[in-house]
Write a structure and sequence with these properties.
Number of domains: 1
Number of strands: 0
Order of helices and strands: HHHHHH
Shape: elongated
Radius of gyration: 22 Å
Distance between the termini: 69 Å
Strand content: under 5%
Length: 148
């Protein structure tokens, strides 16, 4: 009986180790970039949710929270090895495409706030602060994309 329990314990330990090993994802430049894009999309969603002063205040808080999450993701990105030139090109293309689409969405969302000066001011300040925080990560972004 004791032998059977020992074997069962060993098998359970091995099964748990295999489960945890298969669940752990290793960061790659592409996977972390995808996470960044998801957070940038969430920023866009927050901007689009602003329709008046109250919703703009809530959106500004969400954008601030997302910028903190992005800080953590950028730290993980910075810990990765610098990608090859081909990988950088692929990452650039992915980011450029997403940023172009997102810029248009932000522009449309801000146009929707025309005639709502309080909401426009709140969102403008939130996006300006978000931009400052993203500029602080410029060196990391350059490491994984174009120089300049």
């Amino acid at each position: 009986m004791k032998k059977t329990l020992s074997k069962l314990s060993l098998l359970s330990s091995v099964a748990l180790a295999m489960l945890f090993a298969s669940c752990g994802k290793k960061d790659t430049a592409e996977s972390v970039t995808d996470e960044l894009l998801n957070k940038f999309n969430a920023v866009i969603t927050a901007v689009e949710s602003a329709t008046d002063k109250e919703s703009a205040e809530a959106a500004a808080e969400k954008i601030d929270s997302l910028s903190e999450e992005i800080d953590d993701i950028v730290a993980r990105l910075d810990a990765l090895e610098e990608p090859s030139a081909d990988e950088k090109t692929a990452l650039d293309e992915k980011m450029d495409k997403a940023m172009e689409a997102n810029g248009e969405k932000i522009g449309n969302a801000m146009k929707g706030l025309a005639g709502k000066p309080e909401a426009m001011k709140i969102m403008g300040e939130a996006l300006q602060e978000f931009g400052k925080k993203m500029n602080a990560h410029e060196e990391v972004f350059k490491k994984f994309g174009k120089e300049g």
